[in-house]
Amino acid sequence: MEIITLLAFCTVLVSCIILDISIVFAMLIGFCIFFAFGIIKKCPLQHLIKMIFLSVKKAKNILITFILIGMLTALWRASGTIPTIISGTIQFIHPNTILLIIFLLNCGISMLTGTSFGTAATMGVICMTIAVSMQINPVLAGGAILAGAYFGDRCSPVSTSALLVSDLTGTNIFKNIKLMLKTALVPFLVSCAIYTIIGMTFKTGAETANLRQLFAAEMSLHFSTLFPALVILLLSIIKVNVKIAMSISIITAVFVCILIQGNRIIEVLQFMVTGFSAKDAELAKLLNGGGILSMLRVMAIVCISSAYAGIFQVTGLLDPIKKIIIKINNKTSSYCGTLFSAIITSLVACSQTLTIMLTHQLNKDIEKNTQKLAIDLEDSAVVVAPLVPWSIAAAVPLASIGAPSSSILAAFFLFLLPVWRLISNTSGLPGSDFRQAQQNLYHSKNSAEKNTSCI
After folding, report:
1. Angle formed by the axes of helices 125-133 and 392-401, to 10°?
2. Rounded to an integer, what is the distance from CA 63 to the centroid of its chain?
3. Closest CA to 137 of 87, 189, 73, 204
4. What is d(CA 217, CA 223) in angstroms, rounded to the nearest whole number?
5. Could you give the 3-state DSSP secondary structure of residue 276?
6. Residue ranges per structural domain of the chain
7. Running DSSP on this structure, what letter comes out for residue 317?
8. How far apart are CA 300 and CA 311, in angstroms?
């Protein structure tokens, strides 16, 4: 019965993808299918509804964060924060290093914004435009953009996926980021090397467009426009609550919009709700977006995904998969089991959020170490979801930059991270395994406590 139910959902999902019907519609039908499964399994209706409500309620912090991100990305556009960052870095792009620079620029913007969609819609679009003008293969450029966009989406302090993993596992997001950076170091460096080697084969003399002039025609690119980004970076370093840091950055951006860019208050409020809209048609193609309304579809997916998690918990729909995971863990390692479940759930799910939630649900009773589970999720579910062509985690960024689905094959970082974790877990390479990183963090914490006690 469980297999039939999952196949029914997969059929609906694939049909909606083929017919180009909204994924939200497919997920609503999926909700009806899973709810009906719960009724057939004779689960108490009151208990079923209660678990759905509790699961959706758990996502409230993420939904609030989505609203803040919508306002933040719109105001960073309107205040000139993103244009200033772009115009200041784009001049360093050279044809032979363009893939490396594209990857690094998207890594940087995604670290600042914490959103892969926002990164692809801003820096990604610009990088793809430059790449096309230089006659660079869009598959390679799209892959570098996708990999860079999810580098920050994975380990930025304002990333919703990082916040979701932190909330689900009950772990500290800043400790998670410290460990994530350690496990990502080698894959990041290898990705940089691959993009550099491929880039050295390019032979083109095309020049980049004067983007600074394009931006300056509509807004001021004064140094003060960087304040919203600097504020959130500083507050993140001193470990201020993410929502508070984002709120302060939003307030800062509001002042920059009014005092530096000369926007009226009513215009700023409109940006926050509907997103930034440039007057110039060429600039609009590069910079329009953001706003609370842009996040509604994602928020709907998160709510429905949360409802799925509640139903699965009551009905035990995923129990057959959990048995396979236990066998894998016994023969290999817990990370292998987490990666296997992430691959399966990402193929069934249509979003990164649902992949994370289902993978967590399958592994939370198997891996008791919540800190390890958090990093295992970050190194599996978070980066596997964008590798599925029909997932919105891949489809939305690639569509926004006009890149083909085959660009996934050039998103090297997303492949290399799970591979490196598998190698490090089996080979015991020094400094590469999570357990050693966790032990180092544990010992440093103990040393600090001992030093404090002696004072």
Report:
1. 50
2. 15
3. 204
4. 16
5. strand
6. 1-42, 61-295
7. T
8. 17
Alpha carbons 15 and 33: distance in angstroms, whole number:
15
pLDDT per position as a tens digit, 373-399: 999 999 999 999 999 887 778 877 887
Query: Which DSSP string corresponds to 8-63?
Result: HHHHHHHHHHHTT--HHHHHHHHHHHHHHHHHHTT--HHHHHHHHHHHHHHTHHHH
Tokens of 395: 């489809």
Is the torsion defined by CA of 379, 382, 386, 391 positive or negative? positive
List residues bridging with 289 in a β-sheet: 276
> Could you report the per-residue pLDDT of 164-206, keeping only the tens digit for each?
899 889 898 889 999 999 999 999 999 999 999 998 887 654 4
Burial of residue 408 (CB within 10 Å: 0-12, 13-18, 19+) is: buried
Give the angle subtended at the CA of 215 by the CAs of 209 and 219, to the nearest 5°.
Answer: 170
User: How many CA atoms lie within 13 Å of 152's alpha carbon, on the beta-carbon side?
Assistant: 24
Chain-centroid distance, C-alpha 326: 28
The Cα 65–Cα 350 span in angstroms is 21
Report yes or no: 145 and 106 within 8 Å, Cβ to Cβ.
Answer: yes
Residue with tokens 């998160």: 302
